[in-house]
Write a structure and sequence with these properties.
By secondary structure, the chain is α/β, with parallel strands linked by helices. Helix content is 37%, strand content 24%. The protein is built from 7 helices and 8 strands, in the order βαβαβαββαβαββαα. The longest helix has 14 residues, at 70-83.
């Protein structure tokens, strides 16, 4: 499994901090899209990057994790990658405020405050989401997810969403663990 990281427009050190705190190089292949500035918005450049790195492994499962402006290019690239036959286990958008998120794969949002969480849900809502409480600065959720406390909102409950307290890093670890488990169809076949 590969994790595709699509950062926003910010210092590269923030992405290094995010990866160090949230991802385990021993269990997944981590591919960081190197585009800077406006290239973070370019689905074409992200697809080219994926093709260069995964070329003949298009069916290999991938997880997209994107941040801020990087969410724009990443969601378009993910949808196109899927059309090319790609296997997208999940799409995780961190503070992609105002970006409509649609796809035939699980989508999750993490937000730096309740307003961003609430207003993003008006456009499109993911299955399981997270928002920071108390609110943190926009870059903090990317730089320091381990210290960003908040709520996991499970929107799959029919009556009302269930909220569980945890950190943004804990929420990401739960999502990644879920993605690495065999799907029910595969488990039955085993």
């Amino acid at each position: 499994m590969s994790i595709i990281i699509c950062p926003g427009i910010h210092d590269a050190e923030l992405t290094k901090s995010f990866i160090a705190e949230c991802l385990d190089h021993r269990t997944v292949d981590i591919l960081v899209f190197p585009g800077q500035g406006a290239l973070t918005l370019s689905a074409i450049h992200i697809l080219q990057f994926l093709n260069d790195r995964l070329g003949d492994r298009v069916k290999s499962p991938v997880i997209f994790i994107s941040f801020s402006a990087g969410v724009v290019g990443a969601i378009m690239a993910a949808r196109k990658w899927e059309l090319l036959g790609g296997n997208i286990k999940a799409f995780i958008a961190i503070d992609g405020w105002g970006v409509p998120l649609w796809g035939n794969f699980p989508i999750h949002r993490l937000s730096h405050d309740y307003f961003t969480h609430w207003s993003s849900a008006l456009i499109s809502n993911g299955q399981d989401n997270f928002y920071a409480e108390p609110p943190v600065e926009h870059l903090s959720i990317w730089r320091s997810p381990q210290t960003t406390q908040g709520w996991w909102v499970d929107s799959t409950e029919a009556s009302a969403p269930v909220r569980t307290p945890l950190s943004a890093a804990e929420f990401l670890h739960l999502l990644l663990k879920r993605c690495q488990q065999p799907s029910p169809e595969r488990a039955e076949a085993l």
